Amino acid sequence: MRINDMVRDFTGKGHEVTVLTAWPNYPEGKVFQPYKENPEQFGNYEGAEIVRVPLVPRGKRSIQLVANYLSFVLSASVMGPLKLRGREFDAIFVYAVSPILAAIPAVVLRRLKRAPLFIWVLDLWPETLRAVNVIHSPKLLGLVGLAVSWIYNRTDYLLLQSHGFFENVRRYCTKPIEADRLVYFPSWAEDDFLVTTKGPSTLVEANSETFTVVFAGNLGEAQDFPAILDAAQALRGKVAVRWVIVGDGRMSGWLEEQVRSRSLDNVLLLGRHPLDEMPPLFAQADALLVSLRTNDVFEKTIPGKVQAYLASGRPILGMINGEAARVIQASGAGFACESGNGEHLAGITLQMAQLPAVQRQQMGEAGRRYYEREFARPALLTRLERLFSNATMRRSGR
After folding, report:
1. Cβ pair 111, 78 in contact under 8 A
2. E-assigned strands of the chain?
3. Are 80 and 50 within 8 A, CB to CB?
4. In terms of pLDDT, which residue wins out, 275 or 176?
5. Is 3.40.50.2000 the CATH classification of the domain at 2-190+376-396?
6. Measured at the alpha carbon of residue 374, what is the angle toward residues 368 and 378, in degrees to the nearest 5?
7. Omega prior to 126 cis, within 30 of 0
8. Alpha-carbon span 249 to 247, nearest angstrom
C-alpha cells in the first residue's frame, strides 16, 4: 500500500513516525487471529510505532460495515489522544481513502497537539456515495456533505490526487482557504511494478499467437464489465484476443455466469491473487485495461491502477473518460475510448492488436517515461517532506 511506502520512506530518512490505526480486520471482516494472540508483535512497522484502537470488525453485511466505520471514528477520537498523551508531533497526516469520516480523529488531534493537519484526498465525498449507489437520499447526502465541510475547514493542507478534484473540494471549504493549501499530489505505483520482471507468469501461459489484454483490480459495478464483455464478444472468432481478468468483488458471480452463458472462451477469470504476482502477469500482457463508468465523480478521478500500468511499461487500453483518459493520451502509452462503449473498446483493442510489436513497445516505454516524470514516488515523497517542514515553520512563525 502507498501509505506503507510513505512510512518506510520517512523512517528510512530518520524521521520519527507514529501510526494511529485500528485492529487489523481487512479484508476478511474479522480481527486477524495472529493479532489477537500476540498484539505486541504488530506494534512496529519499518521502525514506525503502530498505535491501535478497538473497533467493530467490518464483517460481511452493510450494517456491520457502517458500525465498523463509526466505531473507528469514536474509538480513535477518544482513545487515540489518550494513547498519544504527552507526545508532540510536527505534522499529522491522513491517508484519506473512503470513508473521509475517518479523518475526524485527526481533526481532534490537530486541536490537542497544535500540529498542522494534512489530508490526502483520494476520493470525493459525498459524491462518490451517490455515484456508486450507496446513498440516494438528498437529505442524507447533504448531511454527509456538512461533515465533509466540517473536516475540510479544520484542515491545514488538502492534498488532491487529481487536478479534477480542485473545484469539488473548494465547494466544501466554506471558510477562505489560501491557494497554496490546496496541493496537487497524485498517487504513485507500488515498487513491485518498477522492477524488471524475470521469468514467466504462473497465472497464464504465454501465447505469442494471441493478443492478451489484462484487467487487474476490483470487480465492481463501477468498472462496467457488461461493456467489457460486449467487446470480448464482438472480437470472438474474428481475431485472436484473450481477456484475462484478475481480482474479485461484487460482480464476480455475475461475471462467471455471463462468461459461461455467453460461451466466452476468450475470457479468463483468475480470481484474486497477491500483488507480487501482478508484475510477471503484466509483463506477459500485450495491453493493460482500465475502465470506469462515466459520471461527474469518476471523470475527475485517476484510478490507482493507471500509475501501476504506466510504471509497468506496457501499452494501455482505457474505456474511461476525464482525467484518466487525459493521462493515457498525454503519455502516449495507449488508446482510450469513451466510457461504457463496448463497441469502441473492441475497436481500439483490434487497432492495438494489429500494430507491430515494436510500436506497442514504444507505447509502453513512453508510459514509463511519463510515470517517472509525473508520478515517481521518491520525488513525490521528497515534496511531501518539504511541505511538512514548511508547515511546521509556518505554524511556529518562522
Report:
1. no
2. 18-22, 44-45, 48-53, 92-96, 117-121, 157-160, 182-184, 211-216, 241-246, 267-271, 287-291, 316-319, 334-337
3. no
4. 275
5. yes
6. 90
7. yes
8. 7
Fold held by 191-374:
Rossmann fold (3.40.50)
CA–CA separation, 99 vs 126, rounded Å? 9
Question: E strands of 124-185, at which residues?
Answer: 157-160, 182-184
Express each pLDDT in 216-232 by its tens digit: 999 988 899 999 999 99
Grid cell digits, residue 121: 484526498
With a CB cutoff of 8 Å and minimum separation 6, the contacts of 376 are 188
State the Cα angle at 157 between 152 and 161, rounded to 5°: 90
| Average pLDDT value for residue range 314-325 | 95
Quote the radius of gyration of the chain (alpha carbons, Å): 22
**For residue 381, what is its C-alpha cell?**
515523497
CB of 77 closer than 8 Å to CB of 110: no
Is the pLDDT score of 203 beyond 90? no
pTM: 0.85
Residue 63 phi/psi, 5-degree rounding, is: -65, -35
167 Cβ contact list (under 8 Å, min separation 6): none
To 10 degrees, the CA torsion angle through 246, 42, 53, 103? -50
* Nearest by Cα to 6 from 52, 45, 42: 45
Residue type, 15: H
Question: β-strands 48-53, 44-45: how paired?
Answer: antiparallel
Write 263-267 long-range contacts (CB < 8 A, 24+).
Answer: 264/229, 264/232, 264/233, 264/236, 265/236, 266/232, 266/235, 266/236, 266/241, 266/242, 267/229, 267/232, 267/242, 267/243
Do 309 and 316 touch, CB atoms closer than 8 A? yes
Buried b (16+ CB within 10 A) or exposed e, 204-217: beeeeeebbbbbbb
Where in the chain is CATH 3.40.50.2000? 2-190+376-396, 191-374
How crowded is residue 138: how many other Cβ atoms within 10 Å of its Cβ? 10
Q: Specify burial of residue 77 (Cβ count, 10 A radius: 0-12, 13-18, 19+).
A: middle
